[in-house]
């Protein structure tokens, strides 16, 4: 049953909680890296884990819909007025031990955690340099880049379970971490209040598994290591070239990063896609089609590259061109970007067009990676 409390009543109750500040002027355009989205009933900024927990438990008890927000870098939010309270997680402490144990509050900026770890000579998350957003969101979709995932090093998370109100350290194994997925994503199961990582002392990176990065560092793909600081710099450099490091002055970075996940499809469908590419574009292109092991023991399945499929379906970087409010990034076909004047409906229209175009060309339905609030692609 929905509580009939008015926003002023709720605000009064929330104001009684320590380390909480309220704002009724903020929009999701202010809170997201896409700079898109309408206005929540209220924005509640929480400076400690107990503030987050108290706010969430109060709103849940009042049956007031809420959205947890970190850095807003994986959110597509509807235009207009939204019947929900935005709860922004802003606890920020990070501790790095010499033995490689790193604890970060959920609201810490993720890249600050990476930098602190690299400066302490710890290896394991250097390939995740430059991913925007908060530490607490990294397990939510098991963030990954350049051959590494947070699941490689995540030991446990301090979790507020919403149905019981219990706050406890939960082992990473209980989160069903998989490619861009955990049982926290889309489920509202709980709120991450802190994370704990086990990194490797000694100044060397994790084995390099991503060809482009390994080549940049003069290593083979087979798992050589390099000094963590060198790997961080190389990753940041590669990411900047693709518009994947947030820069307020560069509209190519007003995005949610990769907009679609790489599709995992049956081998037979991958073969059919390759045959279609061969027919349309010739042997040389078809023979170079990226096909990766699906991972997770998925038999008879392969992972394809969403960016490659979008490009081969005819959507070039920068599509649909100058003057459009939302365009593919001019640096990377997989990012949908707000050129400054867009609304969410513009983004949804382009997302649909690209998804449908790839499906018509190759029979593969791309699935968006970000979390959608109040709006859907279908
Ligand atoms: C330029 C750019 C590059 C990117 N590159 C990558 C990349 O290389 N790899 C990758 O994996 N992702 C990438 N992303 C996506 C995004 O940065 C990550 O998913 C990031 O972890 C989101 O963090 P956030 O704090 O911004 O989460 P938000 O966008 O604020 O939230 C995302 C979801 O997580 C939930 N959430 C947030 N915090 C918590 C919490 N403490 N507890 C429970 N739920 C929570 C929210 O409710 C929402 O459902 C990129 C995004 C951009 C804009």
TrEMBL record:
EC number, as in UniProt: 1.3.1.98
Reactions that this protein is recorded to catalyse: UDP-N-acetyl-alpha-D-muramate + NADP(+) = UDP-N-acetyl-3-O-(1-carboxyvinyl)-alpha-D-glucosamine + NADPH + H(+)
UniProt KW keywords: Cell cycle, Cell division, Cell shape, Cell wall biogenesis/degradation, Cytoplasm, FAD, Flavoprotein, NADP, Oxidoreductase, Peptidoglycan synthesis
Gene3D superfamilies: 3.30.465.10, UDP-N-acetylenolpyruvoylglucosamine reductase, C-terminal domain, Uridine Diphospho-n-acetylenolpyruvylglucosamine Reductase, domain 2
Location(s) in or outside the cell: Cytoplasm
Main location group: cytoplasm
Domain of life: Bacteria
Cofactor(s) needed: FAD
Active site: 180, 258 (proton donor), 369
Pathway of action: Cell wall biogenesis; peptidoglycan biosynthesis
Ranges that cross the membrane: none
Family named by the database record: Belongs to the MurB family.
UniProt protein name: UDP-N-acetylenolpyruvoylglucosamine reductase
Origin species: Corynebacterium suedekumii
Lineage of producing organism: Bacteria, Bacillati, Actinomycetota, Actinomycetes, Mycobacteriales
Gene designation: murB
């Amino acid at each position: 049953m929905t509580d009939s409390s008015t926003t002023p009543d709720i605000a009064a109750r929330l104001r009684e909680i320590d380390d909480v500040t309220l704002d009724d002027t903020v929009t999701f355009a202010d809170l997201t890296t896409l700079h898109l989205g309408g206005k929540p009933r209220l924005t509640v900024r929480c400076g400690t884990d107990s503030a987050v927990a108290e706010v969430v438990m109060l709103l849940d008890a009042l049956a007031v819909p809420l959205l947890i927000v970190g850095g807003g870098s994986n959110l597509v939010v509807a235009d207009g007025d939204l019947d929900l309270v935005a709860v922004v997680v802003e606890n920020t402490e990070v501790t790095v031990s010499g033995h490689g144990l790193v604890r970060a509050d959920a609201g810490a900026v993720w890249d600050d955690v990476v930098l602190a770890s690299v400066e302490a000579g710890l290896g394991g998350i250097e390939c995740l340099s430059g991913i925007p957003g908060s530490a607490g969101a990294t397990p939510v979709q098991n963030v990954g880049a350049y051959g590494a995932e947070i699941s490689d090093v995540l030991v446990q998370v301090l979790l507020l379970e919403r149905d019981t109100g219990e706050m406890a350290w939960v082992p990473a194994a209980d989160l069903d971490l998989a490619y861009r997925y955990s049982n926290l994503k889309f489920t509202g199961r709980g709120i991450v209040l802190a994370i704990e990582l086990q990194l490797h002392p000694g100044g060397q990176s994790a084995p390099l598994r991503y060809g482009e990065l390994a080549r940049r560092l003069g290593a083979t793909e087979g798992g050589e290591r390099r000094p963590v600081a060198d790997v961080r710099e190389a990753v940041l450099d590669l990411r900047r070239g693709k518009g994947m490091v947030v820069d307020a002055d560069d509209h190519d970075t007003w995005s949610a990063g990769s907009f679609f996940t790489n599709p995992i499809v049956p081998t037979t469908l991958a073969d059919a896609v390759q045959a279609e590419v061969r027919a349309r574009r010739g042997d040389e292109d078809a023979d170079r089609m990226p096909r990766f092991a699906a991972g997770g023991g998925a038999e008879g399945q392969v992972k394809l590259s969403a960016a490659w499929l979008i490009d081969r379906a005819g959507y070039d970087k920068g599509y649909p061109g100058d003057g459009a409010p939302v365009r593919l990034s001019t640096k990377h076909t997989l990012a949908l970007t707000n050129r400054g004047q867009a609304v969410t409906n513009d983004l949804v229209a382009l997302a649909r067009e690209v998804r449908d175009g790839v499906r018509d060309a190759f029979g593969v339905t791309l699935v968006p990676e970000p979390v959608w609030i109040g709006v859907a692609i279908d």
